[in-house]
Amino acid sequence: MEPILSVQNLNKYYGDQVGCKNMNMTLYPGEVVGVVGESGSGKTTFINSISGNLNPDRGKILINKDNEIINFLEISESLKRLLIRTELAFVHQNPRDGLRLDVSAGGNISERLMSIGQRNYGKIRQTIFKWLDKVEIDKSRVDDFPRTFSGGMLQRLQIAKNLVTSPKIIFMDEPTGGLDVSVQAKILDLLRKLVRELNLSVVIVSHDLAVIRLLADKIIVMKNGEAVESGLCDQVLDDPQHSYTQLLVSSVLQV
Amino acid sequence: MIELNNITKKFTLHNQGRTNISVFKNLNLKINPGEIVALTGPSGVGKSSILKMIYGNYFFQSGEIKINNYKIDHKYPRNIIELRKNTIGYVSQFLRVIPRVPTIEIVMEPLLKINFDQEEVRERAEKILLDLNIDKNLWNLSPLTFSGGEQQRVNVARGLIRNYPCLLLDEPTASLDNVNKDIVLNLINEKKDKGSSIIGIFHDESSRKYLNAREIDITKISHAN
After folding, report:
1. Which domain holds residue A72?
2. Which residue of chain A is at minimal alpha-carbon distance from B97?
3. What is the CATH number of the domain that holds A40?
4. Lower Cβ count inside 10 Å, N or C end of chain B?
5. Are A232 and B77 an interchain contact pair (Cβ–Cβ within 8 Å)?
6. Pairing relation of β-strands A58-65 and A68-71?
7. Which residues does chain B have with pLDDT short of 50?
8. Residue A255 predicted with pLDDT over 80
9. What angle do CA A221, A224, A155 make, to 5 degrees?
10. Residues of chain A positioned with their CB less than 8 A from the CB of B57
11. A79/chain B closest Cα distance in angstroms
């Protein structure tokens, strides 16, 4: 099996400040990679740089689309935008950043569909209902505005909005960040099911090691913009080799 | 077949004065298909560490571990993930699951991962839960609120629903009453008869005898320190 996404020696600077540097990652179909580290370690810069939200200064991002390798940083802007709408998806920590609050729930879900040229109203409506069902939002809410939704529902709506065009690679920045723990559990369960059913490949950023442990196959530990340790998720968390990872793992409170 | 050749394992605690704890030196071990090996020795000697090295949770400094001739190599996490999907099953001491996920779905998960038919998987999960005396009323509840013994049996059900060629068992009967202990031991024996290579830690001697396990005292085969 070939990786669906491969990041090689990626660097992003803000002036003289390091955003992230010498970052490498391979992501295979159906695999979840977790990126952890303290605030300011470069996690968000990294995920933004590999998802088209930021322009990295150096490095390579190779995306495998139907066995054709696409050099993401060297293609035209229009092709990049098309890829971002079809093959890639980005789930923000704050669902309000990823949704249009003045457009109905159904309208939010249909946006990506229409942007890739779907026009048949009946079909679009059907797809919207299918996705509301998948993320467990009652169908009767289809014409309601997101501002009437709870935080957990908003996050599920954002996930539906992103997955409706069957993207292969999903980027998530703290997807359970602002949610209370009971809602968090439900989102985690949903994400795991979707990954399995749709064979999604996911890069997920979180500062919560427990979330990463439950979702991720592999992990990258970042500090000061660099990866200090990476590998199999269980191994890095159970038997960390780097002093910073040891500090991170031993700092988690036990319930 | 599980093989450990010349394994060296140590822990370096960077934040606690760079303390080095040497666990194994020149550890050799082989578990054949259709065989059960029981690790013995006082606690803290590294019994669980051996299982965790085989499953890939623990890193080791030198030597090689082979599972049906595939090497465990932490440079290639992808291969370990594949091994876990298809070859190695692990029943850990404690249940670790996403809160609020129903018991039945937790037990079904290992088979759903390899694209089995939903209905067939459900039937198999129901059967093993019945075999393990988990009350039907509990199947749609999260096991996190269950008693210790029930949680352990859910863990066993999830680990034994498939026929893995290699099976790692960390005290799978520790908190079970005698009736349920015998049920679990019989399930383990079935896996052995189907040709699994099984390595485990079993607290009581009667279990080890019942399984007809080859006992290995770790203090006698590895010379750390």
Report:
1. 1-87+168-178+200-255
2. A214
3. 3.40.50.300
4. C
5. yes
6. antiparallel
7. none
8. no
9. 60
10. 234-235, 238-239
11. 30
Max CA separation in chain B (angstroms): 55
Q: How far apart are CA A167 and CA B40, in angstroms?
A: 50
Q: Using the beta-carbon criterion (under 8 Å), do B74 and A218 form an inter-chain contact? A: no
What pLDDT is stored for residue B225 in this prediction? 53
pLDDT band at A253 (very low <50, low <70, confident <90, very high): confident
Residue A158 located in a structural domain = no
Specify if A127 maps to a domain. no
Closest Cβ–Cβ partner in A181, A235, A243 for B58: A235
Residue A70 lies in a domain: yes
pLDDT, tens only, A156-176: 999 999 999 999 999 999 998
Cα–Cα distance for residue pair A241/A248, rounded to 1 Å: 12
Which positions 11-40 of A are in contact with B (Cβ < 8 Å)? 26, 28, 31
Instruction: Report angle CA B9, B10, B15 to the nearest 5 degrees.
Output: 150
Q: What is the mean pLDDT of residues A37-62?
A: 95
**Model confidence band, residue A178 (pLDDT cutoffs 50, 70, 90):** confident
Q: Number of structural domains, chain A?
A: 1
H or E stretch including B183? helix B178-193
What is d(CA A43, CA B196) in angstroms, rounded to the nearest whole number? Answer: 42
Residue pLDDT, tens place only, B21-59: 999 999 999 999 999 999 999 988 899 999 999 999 999
Sort A239 into a burial class: Cβ within 10 Å, 0-12 / 13-18 / 19+: buried
Helix (H) or strand (E) holding A84: helix A77-86
The model's pLDDT over B125-150, given as tens digits with 9 standing for 90+, comes to 999 999 999 999 999 999 999 999 99
Q: Using the beta-carbon criterion (under 8 Å), do B58 and A239 form an inter-chain contact?
A: yes
Best to test chain B binding among A26, A186, A189 (most B CBs inside 10 Å): A189
> What pLDDT score was predicted for residue B168?
97
pLDDT tens for each residue of A97-147: 999 999 999 999 999 999 888 899 999 999 999 999 989 899 999 999 999
Model ipTM value: 0.91
Q: A217 vs B77: CB contact, 8 Å cut-off?
A: yes
Chain A residues within 8 A of B77 when measuring between CB atoms = 217-218, 231-232, 235
Name the residue in chain B with its Cα closest to that of A248: B15
Residue A157 lies in a domain: no
Superfamily of the domain at B2-221: P-loop containing nucleotide triphosphate hydrolases (3.40.50.300)
Chain B residues whose CB is inside 8 A of the A26 CB are 78
In this complex, is the C-beta atom of B143 within 8 Å of any C-beta atom belonging to chain A? Answer: no
User: What residues does each domain of chain B span?
Assistant: 2-221
With tokens 């992990």, the residue in question is A219
